[in-house]
Amino acid sequence: MSPIEVLFVRGGRSLQGEVEVQGSKNAALPMLAASLLATEGQTVLHRVPPVNDVLVALEVLRRLGARVDYDATEGVAVLDTRDVKETQLPADLTNRFRASLLFVGPLLARFGRAWIQEVGGCTIGSRPTDYHYRGFARLGAEVEGVNGGGIDVVAKRLSGAFMYCDLPSHTGVENLVMASCLAEGESVIENAASDPEIVDFASLLQKMGAQVEGVGTRRVHIKGVRELAGAEHTIMYDRLDAGLLMMAGAITGGDIALKGVVRDHLYVFEAKLQQMGVEMTEEGAWMRVRGPETLSPINVVTTFYPGFPTDLQPGITALACMAKGDSYVRETVFEDRLGHVKALRSFGARIAPEKDSLVLVHGPAQLKGAKVKAMDIRAGAACVLAGLAAEGCTEISNLYQLDRGHAHIEHRLRGLGADIERH
Ligand code: EPU
Fold it and tell me: Which atom of ligand 1 is nearest to the CA of 334?
């Protein structure tokens, strides 16, 4: 993709038609990392979404020496990591997405060593990594900053241990599970995150031969095994991509049908949309979403799963701009995830100065097309939503960010009748 590509959206069309949700990025990423644990057989993943973070993660695997065959159209990745010997992660790739940290756990488990320079990703707060490294240390690894940069994690032997997260960390749990599953003895991770992507990831690990229990609860239990083998798995649908598409239907007063909405993963989000006047009905494998003529205002507090997901907060803030009345949106997971507020103001949204991560949105605003930058994946999604609802033309730049999390969004929205093009 050329870095100067721009998305042009001409708003005001009510979306109609059918669309399919992509496979989950945040489930695919730990599974790609987990493939490194296999010393026998291949790992075959289905419904792997062709988003930038996944493409870069596949490249990381190749650079470590894995054989990677990815068919983006079919969404199938065949990964053979048997010949991997490299334990230094390529810095020019790890600086592009934070989830590259997920490669450290399996390299440490399999080879007793991993080196990583720095991790990149969304600029949504300081995003420390202490739970990951503290957990590795508790398993017996030495974690050292290296002269000239980077972190070296080394262990002669890993032994099962008690580990914990101060806050339920999504990738923290995944990394510590991978580091523990070949360790000698039993491990416990207390105050674990319980997101559906972690449950899906653990079911791949179980197929590979890992003994992991309690995933989906606050306490995860791992019994170390001697070796793991490749396995086959179909990745869950992406609840955040589903959320974006549902909000696209809602903000345009549309009537759309989505394949791949797992309601069990989205209860709180769905309840909030209902409060805004959006109708959602299950019709076999499809969910029908009908937006009201006028949205109602909303109170949202983001929190850990199963609470309202922080990743859908920028999008619902865009919806709140159109709602008739005042809405309150409070971000509690990341301290700096309000970058989209400035962008929404460019569309003419009336949003009070944010204070203590609380956003007060005065609706309804008559949104007008604007020139904006996708600051991160989900802020970019909020710009797309505002653009669909705004009068006139919107130009969204910095599309690398949006493409990190949502595949071919303009194709899928165009299929619903949106006037949206990439140039
Ligand atoms: N935290 C620490 N120390 C750590 C790890 C986390 O203090 O070592 C704190 C964070 O600062 C934050 C909280 O714990 O306040 C939770 O962060 P978490 O570790 O759960 O975030 P993450 O694992 O880095 C994943 C998703 C994010 C999503 C968050 C929250 C992946 C690859 N990323 O990040 O997804 O926002 O969980 O649900 O799974 C996205 O897809 O756009 C995205 C940013």
Answer: 15
Residue 31 has pLDDT above 90, yes or no: yes
- The strand order across the sheet containing 325-330 reads 299-301, 325-330, 358-363, 350-351
Question: What span, in angstroms and rounded, lies between the C-alpha atoms of 274 and 266?
Answer: 12
Nearest ligand 1 atom, CA 121: 44
Distance from the CA of 124 to the center of ligand 1, in angstroms? Answer: 10
Q: Does residue 134's CB lie within 6 angstroms of at least one atom of ligand 1? A: no
Same fold, 7-21+237-422 and 25-234: yes
pLDDT of residue 336: 85
Taking the C-alpha atoms of 84, 89, 94 and 95 in order, what is their torsion angle to the nearest 10 degrees? -160
Q: What is the dihedral of CA 314, 318, 319, 320, to 10 degrees?
A: 90
Domain range summary for the chain, segments of one domain joined by +? 7-21+237-422, 25-234
C-alpha of residue 41 to centroid of ligand 1, in Å:
31
Per CATH, domain 25-234 is 3.65.10.10? yes
The CB of 31 under 6 Å from ligand 1? The reply is: no
pTM: 0.97
